[in-house]
Amino acid sequence: MEESYKYFRRDISWLSFNYRVLLEAEDETLPIFERVKFLSIYSSNLEEFYEIRVAEHRGVIMKKNYADESASEAEATLEAITDEVNRQQREYYRIFHKVLTELNRQNIYFYQNSDPEPFHKDFVKKFFSEEIFPFLAPVMIQKDDVRMFIRDRRLYLVIRMFKREPKENELLPQPYYAMMKIPYAKVPRFIPLPSHDGKFYIMFIDDVIRANLSWVFPGYLIDSAYSIKISRDADIYLEDENKSTIVESLKQKVKKRKIGALSRFVYDPEMPQDFLQYICDAFHISKEDLVAAGRYLNLQDLAKLPNPGSKSLEQHPPVPMNIPYIDEYGSVFKSIKHRDILLCFPYQRFDYLIRFLMEAAFDPKVEEIKITQYRVAEDSAVINALISAARNGKKVTVFVELKARFDEENNMNTAEQMEQAGIRIIYSIPGLKVHAKVALIMRQASSNGSPRKNFAYLSTGNFNEKTAKIYSDMALLTCDKEMIMDVNKVFAMLEGKLQQPTFHYMLVARVNMVNELNAMFAREIQHVKEGRKGRIILKMNGLHDQHMINELYQASESGVDIDLLIRGICCLVPNQPYSANIRVTRIVDMFLEHARIWYFWNDGKEDLFLTSADWMRRNLNRRIETAFPILDPDIKEQFIQILKIQLQDNVKACLIDEHLNNNFKHDDNPVKVRSQLAIYEYLKRKYLL
Q1: CA 506/CA 267 separation, integer angstroms
Q2: What are the angstrom distances between the C-alpha of 427 and each of 358, 378, 419, 438, 494?
Q3: Residues 6 or more apart from 405 whose CB is under 8 A from it?
Q4: Of 11, 165, 221, 372, which one's alpha carbon is 20 to 30 angstroms from that of 436?
Q5: Could you give the CA distance from residue 397 to residue 607 in angstroms, rounded to a whole number?
C-alpha cells in the first residue's frame, strides 16, 4: 500500500499554516491591535520563508547546495509557491483594508494614497524637513552603470521623474529614475500626526516622503513613486564544521548573510510595466524573482504600530500565575524533593526556572551545573544565573548550539560572555544540531548519610524568558534517580565521553527514539488486532518525516484512532482511505503552540511523553532531541486533560482537509471552548483553588 500513499509538499503545507495566521487578522471578535499583530506575524513569517526555504530551492536549481530534490522538482515547487503566495498576497491586502476600516471606526485614521489634510500639511512638511530629509540618500538609477546594492529586509522607494526644463531637441520627455532607502533605523515607520476633532491620525513614513519628493528632486517633475524590497538567501552553509574553527567560520558566514543571493523582489503591482521592466533590467532581476504585493511593503513593521486610543483595543493575555506548592516551601529544590513539578508557560511564571538556577548558584551543596543553549534571550536572566554560579565556585558546563538559525550571533556573544566568567563551553557537534532542552544540577551527598538529591529540568521549549511569554511550552522538574542518570548520559554524549548509551526512560534521537516509537505504533496496532482499543494523540509543530507518516497511515489502516495536533507543517494527507482514522487539527491563537506531547493508549496504561522533537526529517536524523515520560500520575492526568481541552476547541481550532484548507471547527455547541483560555482556567482551578 505504501506505493500509493500521498504526501503534501512541505512548503505548500507551511504556506497553509501561514495563511491560518493571516486569518486571525480577519477575526472581528479580536481587539483591533491583536489583528494588526497577526498581519505583522504573517509578513515576518513569509520573509523568513523566502530567506530560507525559497532560497534553498533556488540553490538547488543553481547547483549551489545539496538537497533531497532534483532541479526539476525544485522548479515545480517554486512555481507552486509563487502561485500560492500571489493568492495569499491578494488576501492579505483585502484583510489589511478591513483592518484599516475597523481602525477608522475606532477614530484611528491611516492616511492611504492621499495627501495630508490641510490641517496636517504644515506638520508633515516640517516633520519631513527636520526629521527625515537629513537621512535621505537618493541615487540615480542608470542601466549598465554602477548599481546601488539593495539590502534585504529594507524598504526602498523607486521614483520616476522628468526634468522641468527638457532639452530643446527632445521629441519625447526623457524619464529619469532614482532610488532611496527609507531611513527606518532613524525615523519610526509610522508617524503619529496631531489629533483633530477627536480623531487620531497616523501616516506611513513612505507617504510622508512621497508627499515631499519635490523637495528632494527640485529640478524635476515627479511622475510617480513606488515601494520595492527584496529578500536574500539567509541560510548558512558550513563546508567544514571542525570544532576548532566553527566559531570563526560562523562569524564570517553571518557577515555575508546580508549579501546573499536574491530570493524574491517584492513590488507595488500599481507600478507601470515599463517602469518595472526598467528597474528589473537595471538590477538584473529575473521574472521568476517577482512577487506582486501592495502599496505598503515590509508590513512586519505593523508590530510597532502605535495605539493612540484605548488599551481596550489591545489583547491582554492572562497574567502568568504563581504555583503555591513551590511558594509554600520557599525553595524550588525542597518542593522537587517531595514530588515532580510541572511548569506550563506562559500560563505559569517563568521565574520558577530562574529561581531554580539561582538556587543552584548559591546552594553550597551544588557542585556542578550542566545545561543546553539553543536560543536564549538577549541580556538573559538564565545566562546571568549561570555566571553567578560560576563565580560562586560551581563547575558550570554549557552546550551552545551555534547553528541555531538567526540566533548564531547572539549565541556566539553569550558564549564568549560565559567563557570570560569561567564557564566551560562546548560548541556544536559537526553535522548535527543539539535541539534538546535539558539542565542538570549535581549536588554533594548529605552529611547525615542520606542519599544526595540531584535535579533535572526537561522541557519542550528554550531557556528563554522572552519567548516564554508568547510560546506555549511545558517543562518538568524532577529528582527521579533513573531520569537523572539518563540526563547525565545525554550530557556525556554531548561531551564526547559516551558513544552508544542505553537509556532507562528517555528517548533520544539518533539513539533509541525512532525504534521506540516504532515499537509503540506496533503495540497499538497489535491491540486493535486483538480486539482492544488503539489510540494515539500527537501534539507537535511539524510532521514531515515520511517514515513516521507511513507509521501513522499503517496504524490508521489497522483501525487505530489518531488525533494529530499539528500547528505548522503537516505532510500527512487526511481524508484518504489509508488515513480515514486520522484527524489533523491546527490551533492558532494569542500564544504560539510550541509544546510537543506524545500520547499512546497502551491498553489503558497511557504512555505520555514530553519532547523537544517534531517529526521533521531533521529532528529525527540530524539533531540531538530528547523525549521523556511523565511518570507522576497526577501530572499525567493534567496532560491528558490539556490534550482533551485542545481537541474540544471550537473557537480557534481548524481541521486540515485533503486540500490543505483551514476549516474552522465552529459547531452548534453553545459551550465555546477557546483552548488556550480554557487551559489557563483549568490550571488556575488545579493550583490556586
Answers
A1: 50
A2: 24, 19, 12, 16, 9
A3: 52, 235, 236
A4: 11
A5: 32
Tell me which DSSP letter residue 616 carries. Answer: S
229 plus 339 within the same structural domain: no
Question: Do the bridges between strand 535-540 and strand 561-566 make them parallel or antiparallel, or are there none, so unpaired?
Answer: parallel
Q: Which long-range contacts (CB under 8 A, 24 or more apart) does 322-329 make?
A: 322/348, 322/349, 322/688, 323/348, 323/349, 323/352, 323/687, 324/687, 324/688, 325/687, 326/352
| Boundaries of domain holding 206 | 31-239+252-313
For residues 505-535, b (16+ Cβ closer than 10 Å) or e, as one string? ebbbbebbbbebbeebbeebbebbeeeeebb
- In a shared domain, residues 501 and 588: no
Tell me, yes or no, whether 520 and 500 share the same domain. no
Extract the C-alpha cell encoding 40: 505583522
Q: Which three cell numbers stand for residue 556?
A: 490508521
501 and 526 share one domain: no
Q: Average pLDDT per run of 10 along the chain, which is 689 residues long?
A: 86 98 97 98 95 88 72 92 94 96 95 86 95 94 76 92 78 88 91 95 95 93 95 68 60 61 90 95 90 92 94 95 93 95 97 97 96 89 96 95 76 89 87 91 80 92 94 97 96 90 95 96 98 98 97 98 98 98 98 97 97 90 92 96 97 98 91 97 87
- Residues marked active site are found at 435
